[in-house]
Design a protein that fits this description.
By secondary structure, the chain is an alpha+beta fold. The protein has a single domain, classed as 434 Repressor (Amino-terminal Domain). The protein contains four helices and four strands. The strands form two sheets. The protein has a two-stranded antiparallel ribbon with strand order 1-2. β3 and β4 form a beta hairpin. α2 crosses α3.
Length: 93
């Protein structure tokens, strides 16, 4: 398993994020939507309401059982006020 640790300045709660870039319980993790929602203090329902979609769709992204389109990924990044790259798991170590 590969881990990447991302450090953010002056925020203890944001000091360390462990990103699983390999297989976790038989499922490949592609996105960090669930983590970024938690970092921003938002819920699946908040994001679903902002995107005018069902909470089940957001839930499937958060569990990595489905993935948003690239266009939708940019919309999510805009809503959560993050760089779109923060929503994806890096392919580099």
């Amino acid at each position: 398993m590969t881990f990447c640790i991302v450090y953010e300045k002056k925020q203890l709660i944001s000091a360390c994020y462990i990103c699983f870039t390999s297989v976790k319980m038989g499922k490949t993790i592609y996105n960090r939507i669930k983590s970024v929602l938690a970092e921003r203090g938002k819920s699946n329902i908040d994001l679903a309401d902002s995107l005018q979609i069902t909470p089940e769709t957001v839930s499937s992204w958060c569990t990595n059982s489905a993935q948003p389109s690239i266009k939708r990924l940019f919309e999510i990044a805009n809503i959560l006020d993050v760089d779109v790259r923060q929503l994806l798991i890096s392919t580099k170590q």
